[in-house]
Input
Amino acid sequence: MAELEQRDTQLPPEVEVRQTVTRGADQARDQGRTAIADLVVAKIAGRATREVSGVHEIVTQGVGGAISGLAQRMTGGERSAQGVNVDVGEHEAAIDLRIIVDYGASIPQVAESIRRNVASRVKAMTGLTVTEVNIDVADLFYAEQNAAAQPAVTPPRRVE
Output
């Protein structure tokens, strides 16, 4: 403080020194407000979840969700927010996910990886702090089931 007073006295008399404190929230308010839709946060969380090894799919809840999911698959519609529910506040977000895990993957490790990746992506892209990521493991995916469900494809004949 003595240095500041000494430095102040060395300035010409027409220069006035004021101490001001600018806080991040005040600065943002002065520059305008940014509103981030819940759907945007849900899409980020959905994409971040799908990036994790061991996650087979994110699924919706209930009959309405199943019909919606089927319609999206048939029409090629946007699926990135499917099976993701979010509560977004001014500075924080809470996220609920319903997933199918690949058989053989460690569910606790998959869940922890999802939580880390979702929180990291949401924070980096929106500035929101993720307070919780609730994960409902609804089913397991067996690779054998998928192989049995697909008909065998015969290779095309090379010569007639």
